UniProtKB/TrEMBL annotation:
Keywords: Amino-acid biosynthesis, Arginine biosynthesis, Cytoplasm, NADP, Oxidoreductase
Isomerase as UniProt keyword: no
The protein's name: N-acetyl-gamma-glutamyl-phosphate reductase
Keyword set includes Oxidoreductase: yes
InterPro entries registered for this protein in UniProt: AGPR, AGPR_AS, AGPR_dimerisation_dom, AGPR_type-1, NAD(P)-bd_dom_sf, Semialdehyde_DH_NAD-bd
Catalytic site: C154
Gene label: argC
Amino acid sequence: MASGKPIEVGIVGGTGYTGVELLRILALHPGVHIRAVTSRADAGRPVADLYPNLRGYVDAVFSEPAAEDLGACDVVFFATPNGIAMKSAPVLLEQGVVVIDLSADFRLKDADEWARWYGEPHACPELLDEAVYGLPEIRRDSIRSARLIANPGCYPTAVQLGLMPLLENRLVVTDRLIADVKSGVSGAGRKAEMPLLMSETGESFKAYAVAGHRHWPEIVQGLVQMAGEPVGLTFVPHLLPMIRGIHATLYAAVIDEPGDVQQLYEQRYRDEPFVDVLPPGSHPDTRNVRGSNRCQIAVFEPQGSGQIVVLSVIDNLVKGAAGQAVQNMNLRFGFEETTGLQAIGLYP
Ligand SMILES: NC(=O)C1=CN([C@@H]2O[C@H](COP(=O)(O)OP(=O)(O)OC[C@H]3O[C@@H](n4cnc5c(N)ncnc54)[C@H](OP(=O)(O)O)[C@@H]3O)[C@@H](O)[C@H]2O)C=CC1
Ligand SMILES: CC(=O)N[C@@H](CCC(=O)OP(=O)(O)O)C(=O)O
């Protein structure tokens, strides 16, 4: 399909932060035609009216989500709040449309667990087994043939990529892993809420959801698969006064002498186009991945303490959402995996 005519793409939720990031990336993708971009609030408005950065690149007009438009697409991205995609995906799948969901609707395999964390029963639990969790670095082959792709969350992407080499090689104690993670405010989406005001988030810094965040079961599910055994994880998210970026500091105690951990990470990610293991002693900076689909990782064993510290950074809207979704689309439709995703991080 990659060498033929462009594939037809639909985006549900085109006015949100991840929706407009999909548009920014897909506008320069040579293999796609954007057929439908939905917004209920802004239906009828040209995309470029709302997002002048896309003037001259995207000539689409926002439309109401309509089954006939979406059903005529080859792939539909859901960039909608949790609980929306699961109501439309079954019909689209029946029509032969590939669904890539940026929300959490298909990430957890257990419907009861989903209901517990997301506060409503799952609308199509029968699809949870089939849905492929779209973290290419661990599941590339299944993504290539999936009908339904659950795009990972932003925190889960940074944490899983950071811990993967340690868990796959059984180098660390798995019952007391710690993920201390910070996010920029765009992670909360484009909505008018008092806690997201600049005067509430600026010049301050806080943890939130320490008692339980809905990304915890998603991360644990992924880590268990990597480790092949139960995993105990303490996950503490924080809100940083910046717009984009996730910085994960991960702690894991080694079981025995771990060998050359730097080399282990370099080997594991040697062929990964979007994971960059930094030289020893580096401290990744979120701004170096801002706007790019890269995850940058550094690994330490400070003071020979037996405690491994991994630093993992991504842009929450790119590798943590829209970029990873396009990476999955590329795999699924036979494009070069990096197509449309070669933007370099913005500095400063
Ligand atoms: N922001 C981030 O960093 C990340 C977000 N995600 C996930 O991606 C999804 C989108 O996030 P984000 O872009 O931040 O969200 P936003 O709140 O910024 O945007 C949501 C979009 O969905 C549309 N929408 C809302 N309700 C409905 C509905 N009932 N039916 C159809 N469309 C609807 C909105 O447009 P309108 O109301 O006009 O229709 C809007 O375009 C969420 O599930 C989020 O959890 C995942 C990883 C990272
Ligand atoms: C800073 C901030 O508020 N981040 C969001 C998580 C990001 C997100 O959108 O969640 P999904 O990946 O599950 O879709 C939060 O904590 O709710």
